[in-house]
């Protein structure tokens, strides 16, 4: 299990932050299902009813160098509540695309 950090949020809840790992597939898919259509659109910049197997595989294929993703977990329910990531468009480039998604009931 990757190292994790506990953070206290302004509303008093606690989240655990750690690197996303390949075995987080189910957590990632369940978090996507908890996003409203508006939140999905804001994250993916297009309407999405579901993620394809290829999209899930891509989102899980972090190398912790040019593609990084940090998972936020609800430690009480052991469910993903958000993901922040960056992806460099070219390996080693000084800039990257960034994206953040937080499930609606944690926004």
Question: Largest sheet, order of strands side by side?
Answer: 1-2-3-4-5
Instruction: Give the tally of β-strands.
Output: 5
Count, helices: 3
Strand content: 25-35%
Taking the alpha carbons of the first and last residues, their distance comes to 26 Å
Estimated radius of gyration: 14 Å
Structural class: alpha+beta
The stretches of 5 or more residues where confidence is low (pLDDT under 50) are none
Helix content, binned percent: 10-25%
Largest sheet descriptor: 5 strands, antiparallel
Which outline best applies? globular
Order of helices and strands: EEHHHEEE
How much is the average pLDDT?
95
Write a concise keyword list for the protein shown above:
single chain, 5-stranded antiparallel beta sheet, 107 residues, alpha+beta
